[in-house]
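Notes from hallway chat w/ T.B., transcribed later so I don't forget. T.B. wanted the structure written out for a chain they're using in a teaching module, and asked if we could keep both sequence and structure tokens in one place. Agreed to drop them here.
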Amino acid sequence: MARNMQSTKNFNLDQYQVQKTNKVLRVLIYIGLVLWALIDLFPVYWMFTFSLKSNEEVYGTNVMGLPKDWLWSNYQTAMTTGNMPLYFLNSVIVTVSSIAICLVAAMMATYALTRIIWKGSKTMNAFFMLGITIPIHSSIVPIFITLSKLKMVNSYWAMIIPYSAFSLAMAILICTGFMNDIPKDLDEAAYIDGCTLWQTFIKIIVPLMKPALATISIYTFLQCWNELMFAQSFISKKQFKTLPVGIQALSGQHTTDWGPIGAALVIATFPTLLVYVFMSKSIQESFIAGAVKG
């Protein structure tokens, strides 16, 4: 049996060496990865070229190719006629505020649920997790009635509060997985050194939760930045509208100039790409950390 195990081990090693040094296989893998990258990047290319074309090219004469005339004026039209700077600023205010509230609330709630011993913590955690099962747009009517009675309709809070609330359940779930893997000996050592409950939370727990915070930030950003139904239902005043509502307003009832709409889409998508480029490393580290800890 030992001889058979040794021969099997040698066979596996030889097979691994063959696969590792097989140039044809490596070339095929690289070709597949390049094709996959091109497929993923094509929508970005199409949207950018779409934003620089006239209606004639968009409607069929030049759908896939580069613009014959690079109409950079479409961006000027989107910025002036479409009022994109105001909508962009509103989206930034709403998104950043929602992320900040969600991060603080999720971290504090998770710390209370996982590190502090009190009766009813498991029940409260299950109550928070119910938020994951509720479709966000199924609650438009009750939220609108509540906001109307509180006189919060047509304000930033009409979007910030619902966005933060519906992102909280997933944020607590993410934080719980990370916080449970932090040894409680660190808390005890901090108490021995004279740290209070708040000092332990801020100086010990929060710095160790950076990968989870990055994950929650990107998740909440995507939830808030691209949301349309709440923003359209709770906001009717122009000064509080966000980018998705502003882009929708560019479409005319009878005729539509698609170039400025494409330019507005590029403006709305650009921050998402930037967030991914600068925070993708933190997201990958959070996945790796979760896999190692599990």
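Follow-up for T.B.: DSSP finds 14 helices and no strands in the chain. Might be a good example for the class.
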